[in-house]
Amino acid sequence: MASIYDRDYQEVIGLLKKARLEKGITQIELAKTLGKPQSFIAKFENGERRLDVVEFVRIARLLGVEPKSVLETIFDSNNSIH
């Protein structure tokens, strides 16, 4: 199982955070939309908490990011699946 320190995982989180910031959405706003506390957003963005696949898909879609494209970006840049 990959850890929160895995390069690919960090890239996924980085892309989600970048999308949030580019859209001008605060951690508080995203958290409210998800029905979660702001600390939930802070913890996964700072690597203190790991997202599961369902959380990842929901957050990506809320940010207007296609989950499949995020994964393709990572695997295409590595030219292999880990």
UniProtKB/TrEMBL annotation:
<dbReference type="InterPro" id="IPR001387">
    <property type="entry name" value="Cro/C1-type_HTH"/>
</dbReference>
<feature type="domain" description="HTH cro/C1-type">
    <location>
        <begin position="16"/>
        <end position="70"/>
    </location>
</feature>
<dbReference type="GO" id="GO:0003677">
    <property type="term" value="F:DNA binding"/>
</dbReference>
<dbReference type="InterPro" id="IPR010982">
    <property type="entry name" value="Lambda_DNA-bd_dom_sf"/>
</dbReference>
<dbReference type="Pfam" id="PF01381">
    <property type="entry name" value="HTH_3"/>
</dbReference>
<protein>
    <submittedName>
        <fullName>Transcriptional regulator</fullName>
    </submittedName>
</protein>
